[in-house]
Amino acid sequence: MTNETAPADDLRTVMLIGAHPDDPEFGCAATVAKWAQEGRQIEYVLLTSGDKGSHDPVVRPGQIAARREEEQRAAAQELGVRAVKFLNYPDGMLENTMDLRRHICGIIRRHKPDILLAIDPWRRYQLHPDHRVAGQVAIDAVYAAREWYIFPEQLGDEEPWRVKEIYLYWTDSPDFWVDVTESIETRIAALARHSSQLRGNNDERAERIRKMARETGEPHGYAYAEGFKRITLR
User: What is the CATH number of the domain that holds 192?
Assistant: First the structure.
């Protein structure tokens, strides 16, 4: 069983592909903060802007999307993320089509991340269809980006790009644990930026996050940790 706290030092660029604003902060933001503090260059690619993320019938999808984009940028700044890209696909309606795979493959080839962070699409009873699609299309696009004759029109004079490692969060099968003892409070602060999506008591929410991270870290000797399924490709 792997029990490590950081990827190799030569893996400096990280891309997180998620479905919605707030997925990173609910998922693995303490790791994002830690890696940013270590000098890794991190960017987010979010497939939607969360335009269905309101139960208020008076609030239009465009209004909530604009607010959620603003919240996500503020959260990313809190964590040290370099850039956030929104692809503006419809919230709640994502499909793992060949066009979406082509789009994500092109982004990977242009930005050339060493590490990809994504939702584990194989998590048992992962009910939200957007989460399943976001994870699956990210993995499928990583494979496509490595191949000469998949979407070759994207390559021009460049060679295919090979992501070196994938880390899947929200997983049932973790085999890699990141010590986030020094960054758990940064995750909590970043999540608080998503005020349009949060309900209940802030202190209670923060303690729930600490509790989950304690339970994840304790078996591995960490005060707080986040767990991932790690896929090594090089």
Answer: 3.40.50.10320
